[in-house]
Amino acid sequence: MKIFGGLVMSLKLQAIGTIPQQTVKVAEAAFPNGNTYITMRDELGVFFSDEPFAELFSSCGQPALSPWRLALVTIMQFAENLTDRQAADAVRGRIDWKYALGLELTDPGFNYSVLSDFRDRLLEGSSEQLILEKMLSRFTEKGLLKARGKQRTDSTHILAAIRTLNRLELTAETIIHTLNVLATVAPDWLKEWVPSEWYKRYEKNLNEYRLPQEKRERTLFAEMIGGDGYLLLNMIYSESAPEWLRFIPAVETMRQIWLQQYYLEEGVVNWRTKGNIPPPAVMISSPHDVDVRFCSNKRDKTWEGYKVHLTETCDADIPNLITSVQTTASTASDSSVTEKVHDELAQRELVPSEHLLDTTYGSVDLLLESHREYDIQLICPMRPDNSWQSRTEGCYDISQFTIDWENQKVLCPQGKVSVYWKETKRSGEARIGAKFD
Hints:
Blueprint: E1 3-4, E2 7-10, H1 21-30, H2 36-44, E3 62-63, H3 67-80, H4 84-93, H5 95-101, H6 113-124, H7 130-141, E4 150-159, H8 167-185, H9 187-193, H10 197-201, H11 215-236, H12 249-261, E5 262-265, E6 268-271, E7 293-298, E8 301-313, E9 322-329, H13 335-347, E10 354-356, H14 364-374, E11 377-379, H15 388-391, E12 402-404, E13 409-411, E14 420-426, E15 429-435
Parallel strand pairs: 2-3, 4-10, 10-11
Antiparallel strand pairs: 1-2, 4-8, 5-6, 7-8, 8-9, 12-13, 14-15
Helix pairs in contact: 1-5, 2-5, 3-4, 4-5, 8-9, 8-11, 8-12, 11-12
């Protein structure tokens, strides 16, 4: 059963009708030369129908709004960078939007909360790519998109919808968040044992300006919070506590953050020093979004959030269209995305003949693999040689050696032949070692 916003929603499939005559008449008078959305509806249609979204809804319940319209509203909302409230107002008040959506001029629209519920449905149903896929199909039908052309991929940062926290703020925010959740789902259990001083200590968010400033005082304050957190976790995991408390997401998040920020030594709570904490790729940055990571390696930018990798066509004779969207952790390497992009483009029958990339997306292995699997030519600057040989005067790099693979011999630049050959693996990669007298 699909429940969102406390409601069970059902979908009655409806055919997409023509645009109401009065809407057409007013739109043509208001925009005699057309506009973006009017032209889009006339030339490309509506992209979607209700059928592909049907499995996201229940067979019974309160009637849902037509998902094809909500999908189109989502596209137009993103194009204009509108909030949900602004997008809902545009549906009610803009003639070009009513034209694109096929609505009567008197249509009252919908509450703005419907848009976030629709996005939740897409995510919960693992259908977040559905809107893009349907649009790509229509572009292909119209001859605006074709395989075996040129495409390029690059990434940009996504800021998480969280407040940036330092480590002390993080632990304070975590225990406050966990207590608030427990006060909602298990108030009687919490009241039975919670220390009275916690009510004052954690009644308000502990922002930086309310925290100690001296290093020693901050450490003591952090360890006090740590002790409170360990007490809370011990009570949750005690035999007398309801077992289901352990499976509350906020509790599990707190347990992980406490492992990352504290350690116990002979029963004493210790605040981890900077050299004893996990790397950014592992470190949880917020109790409200455990997937967010801190990153500082994108063109000298620092941010907390994610990276999105966008692939678009770049042929001269057709519009540039996005063909793939990959969202990763902010700390994920760009090269880890290249193969995923190719696999996705192959599934959509949109594999390019040339794929233009930044240096960070390419490697020798990817160059060979892309050509072998999909006949794709990767075009990207190669990484500079950072080996110790390249930085040491008088040393030879591997390009100066001649390798006889059949006889397993290596000839060095001074004319000597190797006397030892051994094939090994390191970090999952095949390696060959050779020695000379």
